[in-house]
Amino acid sequence: MEASENMSSLNFSNGFLPNDLIIQILSKLPIKTLFRCKLVCKFWCRLPSEKYFIDLYSQTSSKNPTLLLEIICTLRTRSSYICVDRFSGGLGVSLDFLNDRVKIRASCNGLLCCASTRNRGVYYVCNPMTREFRLLPRARGRAITRCQPEYEATLIGLAFDPKSWKYQVALAGFYRPFGRRPHDQLVCLVLDSDTNVWRRFVTCQYDEFTHMNRNQSVFANGLLHWLTYSCSHVLALDLKDEVWMKISLPEEIVAGGLVCRVYLLELEGEVSVIQMSGCWMNIWVLKDHVREQWILVDRVHLRCIRGLATNAFPMCQTSDVVFLAAQRKVLTYGRKDKVWREVYAEQDSSTYPLWFSAHAFQSTLFPCNQGDFLE
């Protein structure tokens, strides 16, 4: 169906350019520029709120991924945020509209899940580009105890499906009686954007996670995925059936042990892991969840970034480009032209390493402040 048919309700005629062409041009603009263009006419004003255009904008922006960096400075009380793409460098982003001090815990298809640092157990789902947000309900009405996963959730995942315009938030933590070590019981809470109610279930499961891999969750095929500390398997949560499962990693990765570094990413709707071993970067994709079939799709030599390879961490990727965050630089590798580029450099020496709080991101117009989305 053409754009003019989807937007027929606007009854706009330009006289110079067809509507389809105007829509295609506007879908490639940055969101801030697009919102300024709303002053041109009623047609352009309504366009960012139309379901067809929101879907089109998401499809277009997915081809231009960005890396969302939280710049944490030891000399400042508040963090700053920068979106880095492969063309125009860094663009400042603010989360001040939340009126709270927050920590980004998950990112999925343009939406963020943020945790309040002032009030434990308080979470937001927001779109930083449109400045819309939803404050999630507390999981329980009674006082928070250390036995609840929302107090100090080990894992936080955000699953946003652009096709259905629905999202789910998952909190998972290990049952810990006060003053004792955690038990091997994984308590999980899942919230659906339609019902806005938490569902709770408990599983006999125990795994360890580092700071990095517990914050790198990947949503694909209806599952949320996390890489375990041992780098021997991926822990996946089936959001529909509320079941946890383990997916073994390729034997080549497991055999590498502590010699290689492994990172969990998403690659155009599929689960991917990137293995950094010696002077090589190997990119694997999970083609079959049931059979645990992994395919090696790319193998890159790191000789061109020899001085940065030991502290460069893959953070997001597409079939065209891979973003890597280092101590104070962001690099990209073009998978087609095989060219390395430096796209961002942080000058402040008092900041935390850029890979410490970096998230895959893309610009989107999807609303997140309403329980029932546009039809």
Task: Provide a descriptive summary of the structure in words.
Helix content is 12%, strand content 39%. It has 375 residues and is mainly beta. The chain is globular.
Write the layout of secondary structure elements.
Blueprint lengths: L2 H4 L12 H8 L4 H6 L5 H5 L4 H11 L4 E6 L8 E5 L5 E4 L8 E7 L2 E6 L6 E5 L4 E4 L19 E7 L4 E9 L11 E7 L5 E6 L7 H5 L2 E3 L2 E5 L5 E6 L4 E6 L2 H6 L4 E7 L2 E8 L2 E9 L4 E9 L11 E5 L3 E5 L3 E6 L5 E6 L12 E4 L14
Protein name: F-box protein At5g49610
Pfam families: F-box-like (PF12937), FBA_3 (PF08268)
Nutshell version of this structure?
The protein has helices at residues 3-6, 19-26, 31-36, 42-46, 51-61, 211-215, 251-256, and strands at residues 66-71, 80-84, 90-93, 102-108, 111-116, 123-127, 132-135, 155-161, 166-174, 186-192, 198-203, 218-220, 223-227, 233-238, 243-248, 261-267, 270-277, 280-288, 293-301, 313-317, 321-325, 329-334, 340-345, 358-361. It is mainly beta and 375 residues long.
Task: List the total number of helices.
Answer: 7
- Rg over CA atoms: 21 Å
Strand content: 35-45%
Low-confidence stretches: 1-5, 7-13, 141-145, 371-375
Query: How far apart lie the N and C ends?
Result: 17 Å
Describe the sheet with the most strands. Answer: 4 strands, antiparallel
